[in-house]
Amino acid sequence: MTDHCNLENYLLNLEGKGFKFKGDAISFIYFGKQLTGSADFLVSLSIELTLITQKRFDGSFYLSLLETLKENKITTRTQAYSYVKSIGLLKAHS
After folding, report:
1. 53 falls within a domain
2. pLDDT by residue (tens digit) across 7-26?
3. 3-class secondary structure, 24
4. Is residue 91 assigned to a domain?
5. Residue 39 is part of which domain span?
6. Three-state DSSP class for residue 38
7. Confidence at residue 2, expressed as pLDDT on a 0 to 100 scale
8. What number of other Cβ atoms are within 10 A of residue 50's Cβ?
9. CA distance 17 to 85
């Protein structure tokens, strides 16, 4: 299936777990994806890491993180977590 379905399923899964996106957050997520030309996997990781570090969806943080992960050629979850730990966004034991 396409990457679009993967991101859509990820967002539906979050909502199914009780997370509610406010306002136009979903549109902003897709805007960030299009702006950066990122794959759904990287977009989903950026959302996940935004929610973990900010405890809520912060659009500007998400977009900045997405751009940073893309610029640093992050392609796996392990790389993403290692990177955010290395820049101090997550504690090493997280």
Report:
1. yes
2. 999 999 999 999 999 889 99
3. coil
4. no
5. 3-14+26-86
6. coil
7. 42
8. 23
9. 26
